[in-house]
Amino acid sequence: MPSFNLNFQAERDRCLREQRLFEDPEFPAQDSSLYYSKRPKQQIEWLRPAQIINDPQLIVSGQSRFDVIQGAIGNSAANLTLRDELFYRVVPPDQSFVENYAGIFHFQFWRYGQWVDVVIDDRLPTSNGKLIYMHSDSENEFWSALLEKAYAKLYGSYEALKGGSTAEALEDFTGGLIEYFEVKEVSKEQLLAVLVRGFQMGSLFGCSIDADPNVTEARMESGLVRGHAYSVTALQTVQGPHGETLLLRIRNPWGNEQEWNGAWSDNSREWQFVSQEELHKMEFVRKDDGEFWMSFDDFYAEFEQLENCNLGPEVMNEIAAMTGVDAAREATAWTSFSTNGGWNSQQGSAGGCRNYIDTFPNNPQYGTYLSLSNGTVENDGKCTVITAVLQKYRRELRTQGLESLAIGFAVYELEKSLGLGRQDRSFFEQSKPVAKNPTFINLREVTARFRLPPGNYIIVPSTYSPNEDAEFLLRVYCSGEIKAQQV
Hints:
By secondary structure, the chain is α+β, with helices and mostly antiparallel strands.
């Protein structure tokens, strides 16, 4: 897999000494950086920002969620701008078009458990002098276009970014752990609890409505768009015409007039009942900017998927070390465990799912001890646990025809007498999992949240079928204390 060996400071210093603009040898301004299978329709010309417009700037008067107009990763980049400490973790502030400019920039991404520094030049793909991918609503602002170029380099090409979800990009920008909720399969109370607790703990949220198989991004009468990634950027209670009402602020990364047109939309009568002071506090504006408010009840009725990006303690510590901002808030409510693993058919560790009981015990096994912490919200003697298995490198390997495998995991409770040792076939024949992800699926990552009493457990990640090789990252977040190791 690609390594990113360019040193930003060293390369910039060399270019300044030699009085030349940097050209990236790892991600050249040519077709291979644009696509691997489908050539763009437009005639592409690679231009530096100064060739596109006078007075280019990296950031114009502070970054905002309106700096990002639809691109493959638009929504996640917009989410980044909601929190300075998250933004500057990804977009280091030691670079500009003015001071020490040498046509070189760098961005930092979380890549399968490690933060990597991706160095690029500032030659951007254009058509007729205009950026063809992600861009800002300020014509001379370039942080979002350059961020997207670095992200394309991370995965090999701009085309490789297509088909990636908002959630994947959000994970790569924050190092957070993503949960997926089918809105209609969760009670209103549960979903509201996830949102309220998530906002308290600094989570980031995305949402969507199922796509219409016959129409790409079909526009609905309500103004919402099917198969389109939105972000949830705020939660607010107001006094409306029917008393206290919970509102969500939603953003469409197209950044245009395509907005919700129901109750609490920009021009609806409900806003007459809200004071000017409250409107100012909510940053409410009537503008065709892709951002709108809607009631939680309407959100529950209209949207079908919600994604929650949980920020764990190691992410928060990393942010604090890099930016000097202690962003922990209440996120330290999580303790976490993460480790790299793999399924290897030659080594006999690719056992497949429990349907293949002869080989299932050959999969990697992780002995896990959970204990309660003080002050849990539920007070029911159980720990909240989020477990995630992420298969590495599959997007990068798509150019070789390798797609994501169907993956999953199962969690088994261990009696104290068994300790945390490796378990054999007889154990799995006699035991039922106490938790697992809902279904084996060919996503980059599978995740599940559940509640378990303190004690000893074994976690078994697997592919659906035996003898399928892949590397993975296992992560476990716990509301109590967690200790784990491969056994």
